[in-house]
Write a structure and sequence with these properties.
Rossmann fold
Amino acid sequence: MTEPTRSRLLVLAGPTAVGKGTVAARVRETHPDVWLSVSVTTRPPRHTEVDGDHYHFVSDAEFDQMIADGELLEWAVVHKTARYGTPRRPVEEALAAGKAAMLEIDLQGARQVRETMPEALFVFLKPPSWEELVRRLVGRGTESAEDRERRLETAREELAAESWFDVTVVNAEVNDAVAELVSLLGAATGAATP
């Protein structure tokens, strides 16, 4: 039996409310052969989120222990409120098995991954316009006015970092963004498009 070829990781990041979670979920739904990391977070779940599917929801003490044990590939405080991180072992296992693999993380996390895995492909998911980003954030109705303002402040900073990424995908329409990402995943792994 031949050993699988190690894959190249695709790291998807972008500003709040750009639709990273929606795009990643659609990739998972339409391309089950693509492996997607499930992040850990200290924030409480939104009413539509399922533990272990959308995120692994953990306490601050559990998160601290994961950091101390070196279990996180990256982690950051996001929107000045909660911590998010990527469990290291599942990523390494997926890549070693030759799977098309994708992380959906924030900009701080992407910068940390670049330090440890510079060979990854870094993709910036961009909104079609600032007005559309604001509409999406307000429309999802999951944050207070204060939280929305904090997220928009962060989004302005995140949009300014677009040139740091290898590729930009505009999320004007979810299916188009998914098709671009799947194509990039095929190119990143050297395989035919999944």
